[in-house]
Amino acid sequence: MNRPEISVVVPAYNEEMNIKPLYDRLLSVLAKISPYFEIVFIDDGSHDETVAEVLKMRALDERVKLVSFSRNFGHEMANTAGFRTALGQAVVIIDADLQDPPELIIDMYEKYKEGFDVIYAKRKTRKKESFIKKSTSKWFYRVLKFMSDTEIPLDTGDYRLLSRRAVDELNRFSEKNRFFRGLTHWIGFNVTYVYFDRDERHAGETKYSYIKLMKLAVDAIISFSYKPLKLFTLFGFCSAGFGFLLMLYWIIKKMLFGNPTDGWTSTVTIILFFFGIIMMQISVVGEYIARIYEEVRERPLYIVGRSEGVDPDRVSEKNEIKNYGIDHEA
Ligand code: UDP
Ligand code: MG
Q1: Atom of ligand 1 at shortest distance to CA of 78?
Q2: What is the pLDDT of residues 7-27, one digit of tens each?
Q3: Which tens digit of pLDDT belongs to each residue from 275-290?
């Protein structure tokens, strides 16, 4: 079998209505690039007919492949499984909901041929997403940029194309709390952008609740920086300095005017304020410790319930080392 020239990885969680339209659009786009392509659907434990839809496509076209998780493991894990499974020389990751126009793959592929390894699709506009969503995602990226030590590309989703060597490098990561959008930047190589208008979801609802988004944001910040810890150190120093000045003030005041009962309010406010800070500080440290704990437990990242048309060894957890560096000649 020929190694696919291009793989398209599609994480899908309850996307039954989107599989067929996405497949149709991908087909007409990929046909322009090469007949040797594969579309790998990663079913993230959907409760609807997503798997059946994918299998329907597969019955007609062997280039459609399926990896189905035993339960919902989250978008980042679906991405991970997708990168491990994909065999293409170039690998595109695209959302299942048609918010990312598949036609852009042509542009991205052109850039890849020019020698770029990581090609991001950057949004110019977002149609009809709520104001809150737009502004939260704008602020999310701005805060992230400030908080993290690694540069994270602004206004990009997951839609991107990676070269084989970039994917091979990504497949070496075994960490649990990942933020792919940052990791693809972290690995380096030649990076470029193509621009597009973000469409509305084709069908179904967003799978990202605000809670999930918060988790993503915290993962993104904590897995890329120690800034939260540093900020608290700074805060601690400032408040200790301030406390010291206050102490001098009170001691001098007491020596001059001597009024031992005065100061109940200030004492209590200070105690409450600093307890608050200390608790926040401890919880930030706790976030890091919880992540350390998750990493050292070395549980598998995800469990595959079923796979069709893919090498089970590649997608399975046990083969991190084997996964790295498949031979490059097709
Ligand atoms: N997704 C997933 N697992 C999840 C949540 C989402 O695989 O737990 C997939 C989803 O099917 C879609 C992509 O991730 O293909 C992006 O999700 P969504 O469109 O809901 O996010 P949004 O575009 O609203 O940020
Ligand atoms: Mg979407």
Answers
A1: 7
A2: 999 999 998 888 899 999 999
A3: 777 877 887 788 788 8
Classify each residue of 23-40 as buried b or exposed e, where b means 16 or more C-beta atoms within 10 Å of its C-beta.
Answer: bebbbebbeebeebbbbb
Which ligand is in closest contact with the Cα of 129? 1
Ligand nearest to the CA of 81: 1
Residue found under tokens 């994918």? 54
CA of 280 to the centre of ligand 2 (A): 33
**Mean pLDDT, the chain, as a whole number?**
80
Tokens of 185: 């930047």
For the 6-225+300-319 domain, the top CATH level (class) is: alpha beta
Residues in CB range of 175: below 8 A, 6 or more apart: 223, 295
Pocket of ligand 1 (CB under 6 A): 11-13, 15, 44, 72, 74-75, 78, 95-97, 99, 206-208
Going by C-beta distance under 8 Å and a sequence separation of 6 or more, which residues neighbour residue 191? 116, 117, 118, 119, 120, 153, 185
Per-residue model confidence as pLDDT tens digits over 47-60: 988 999 899 889 98
- If phi > 0 it is left, if psi is from -120 to 50 it is alpha, else beta; for residue 188 that is left
Total Cβ atoms within 10 A of residue 214:
12
Does residue 315 contact residue 171 with C-beta atoms inside 8 Å? no
Instruction: Give 96 Cα–ligand 1 centroid separation in angstroms.
Output: 7
Residue 10 sits at φ, ψ, to 5 deg, of: -125, 105
Give the model confidence (pLDDT) of 167-199 as tens digits: 988 888 877 777 777 777 778 888 888 887 776
Give percent of the chain above pLDDT 70. 86
Phi and psi angles of residue 302, each rounded to the nearest 5 degrees, phi first: -160, 165
* Under 8 Å between Cβ of 327 and 171: no
- Ligand 1 mean position to 202 CA, how many Å? 12
Domain boundaries, the chain: 6-225+300-319, 227-297
